[in-house]
Amino acid sequence: MLVSQNTLGSLQFSFSTDVHVIKDYYDIVKNVYRNEMHIRNINLPEVDPDEFDFQSDFLIILSNGVCVGGARITTSYPKNKNLIPLENENFPLSTFIPDLQYHAYSEISRLAVLPEFRKQGLVADLFRYIIIRSLDNNISSIFAKSSKIHTINYRRSIKKLGLDINCFNYPFKNDFLNTRYKKNLVMLCLKDVTNSSNGQFQRLTPKAQDQTLTLVA
What we know:
Blueprint: E1 2-8, E2 11-16, H1 19-36, E3 56-63, E4 66-76, H2 93-96, E5 104-113, H3 122-136, E6 139-146, H4 148-159, E7 166-168, H5 176-180, E8 184-189, E9 204-206, E10 213-215
Parallel strand pairs: 5-6
Antiparallel strand pairs: 1-2, 2-3, 3-4, 4-5, 6-8, 7-8, 9-10
Helix pairs in contact: 3-4
C-alpha cells in the first residue's frame, strides 16, 4: 500500500509498505553496495533487513511503477526513546546534543538508486520530499552516516534547498562498513525551518477519502 506519493518528472517518490516493492528496493541496496564499493563474497548485515525496519518508513523511487531506488527513514520519539540505527547504545545522540531528548529526530539510511536514474538534482528532490514530510511530523533533525565524498554531495544538494548541514565525529558501532569507510555524522537541523519559511517546502495535505498525500501549493 502506498501511503504518500509525489511525481517529479518521470520519477515518482512514494512512501510504501508493500513488501514486494520493499524487497525490490533491498535488492537494489545490496547491488549498489556490493558493486560500487567493490565488496564481493562477504555477508553484509548492514544492508540486510533488520529490526529497525519495523520502526522505519521506506521512501521508494519508482519509474513507470518499477522500483529504481529509495531510502529508509527511521524516527526516534521522546515518548519511547528508541534509538535510530546509527546510534551507539553506549553513546546516544542526546549525549552530544541534549536537546534531542525532548524532540523527535530521524535517520536517512540505505540510500541507493540505480545508476541510470541518477539524474542531476535527484538527491535534492529526494531530500526536499523528506524535509516536507519531516516538517509535517514535527521532526527536529535529520541525521545520516556518510563518507567524505557523500557528505560533499549531500551538502551540495541541501544547499540547493537553501539549507546546510553540520558534520560531527561520532563513535559509531564497529561494523564492517564503518571500519572500512571513514564515516561522518551528518545533521540537518529543521528547528528553524517551517513549511512557510521557504518557498521550496510546500505542505503535504491529506485527501479526504484515502491515505494518499499529495503536494499542493
